[in-house]
Amino acid sequence: IAGITQAPTSQILAAGRRMTLRCTQDMRHNAMYWYRQDLGLGLRLIHYSNTAGTTGKGEVPDGYSVSRANTDDFPLTLASAVPSQTSVYFCASSDGTGDPKQQFFGPGTRLTVL
Amino acid sequence: GQNIDQPTEMTATEGAIVQINCTYQTSGFNGLFWYQQHAGEAPTFLSYNVLDGLEEKGRFSSFLSRSKGYSYLLLKELQMKDSASYLCAVVDSNYQLIWGAGTKLIIKP
Q: At B105, phi and psi to the nearest 5?
């Protein structure tokens, strides 16, 4: 089934630990995004990638890094987790840039940092 | 700054009509999306407007006025399954989506 998968579904993490959230899409979309969603706030863009090999910073990039080695995968890494990074993380993709296209979302990863 | 405003919560009755408003102030405008998000799930696409006017799609319609920085989502013949959050998102001058906090819609029988 075509779509976006994320792993893990949920995770409890000790502060200071390193964590990578995985995201894979099989729709051959060029653009991919990482958002965090917190209660009472809109989705906030962390990092994005317009095409394989390129990445860019979003609204809230501090404490996070990404890579885009190929079209399908877009992992998000927290180098040293802090409690303020407790959130639901969504990965999304779209099939082009420059012309607004709908974004397709993965099921999300619920992360708790203690 | 960039700002998207939506009501936090609305309540409506099954079978009725509800209008969810969204006002925006953004750096540039390249379209507006509406997404639906059920509790604990991912957002899913509902509509996209880039020109002024009404776009109808089944029970759901979306309206845009660029001069007023205003959009609304109209849901007709409400069903219990329409209980969800509705997210408004504007495409800014950099073609990034700026998201509102969402409107939680509660449907009562």
A: -105, 125
CB contact under 8 A, B42 and A42: no
- For residue A1, pLDDT over 90 is answered with no
Task: Give the bridge partners for B90, in sequence order.
Answer: B32, B98
Q: Which of B31, B42, B45 sits opposite A106 (nearest CB)?
A: B42
Residue from B97, B99, B103 to probe the interface with A (highest A Cβ count within 10 Å): B97
Amino acid, single-letter form, for residue A47? H
Reported as a single tens digit per residue, the pLDDT across B52-70 is 999 999 999 999 999 999 9
Residues B24, B99 contacting (CB under 8 angstroms): no
Q: What are phi and psi of A78, to 5 degrees?
A: -105, 115
Is A42 within 8 Å of chain B by CB?
A: yes
Of the pLDDT bands very low, low, confident and very high (cuts 50, 70, 90), residue B94 is: confident
Q: H or E segment at A7?
A: strand A4-7
Could you report the per-residue pLDDT of B42-53, keeping only the tens digit for each? 999 999 999 999
Residue A6 and residue B95: Cα distance in Å, rounded?
24
Cα–Cα distance measured from residue A8 to residue A3, given in angstroms and rounded to the nearest whole number: 16
Q: What percent of chain A has pLDDT over 90?
A: 88
